[in-house]
Here is the input.
Amino acid sequence: MDIFAHRGASGNFPENTIAAFKEAARLPVFGVEFDVHMTADGELVVIHDESINRTSDGTGYVKDLSLGELMKHDFGSWFSSDFQGETIPTLVDVLDVFDSTEHKLNIELKSDIFPYEGMVGRVLDVIAERQLESRVIISSFDHSAIQAVKRLNPQIETAALFMEVLVHPLDYIHRIPADALHILFPAAIRPPMAEVINSGMPVRTFTVNDEKYAMLVKQAGVQAIFTDYPEKMNAFLHSR
Ligand code: G3P
Ligand code: MG
Here is the structure.
């Protein structure tokens, strides 16, 4: 079973910061996951929430702030004073960290709350410039965004994100269409998921930080977990 470092190595480092990504890049895990939003001036930045309130010393929505304004804030101190001075990374900054590694790059488009007009095209431009088509998986709770990705570049692997227990998931996934299904942990081991797993479509699950749950999803045939503790999970899964 593969491991993705969720928001970087976010258990021990401030999520979605260069510190968390450098740690993930150092680890022999399959991939890394991170979340993308768009600023008021159309820049792509990596942060989980729509606002900067929880993970910085500032306030406000990403969509209302320019990159310059966002860069004035500290995104490390909320986690620990050891990380004071971490700034919000752009998508390009994060890709730079993984430039010379082999990690799969799961870019989650956070356009499910605010639509971020034009974000899909901008993300695809960055991927094309860096020739990362075969290294990325683009996922979203905004299934119209991944539908747009497939229309614009069918080569790129896409994944639909879900939190719910699903009924007939394959029908829906094929309708979007998407290549894979990423789903919250408990729903990943409910019976309807077997239909997807048996079809050969990748099912990956978030966020698995407990070894017991990792064993459960592995037994269910889940292809990968997203975890905040990639080093610990890697040691556990490889010790078996
Ligand atoms: O992409 C998997 C997972 O990150 C989705 O949920 O809220 O952690 O972005 P969230
Ligand atoms: Mg995410």
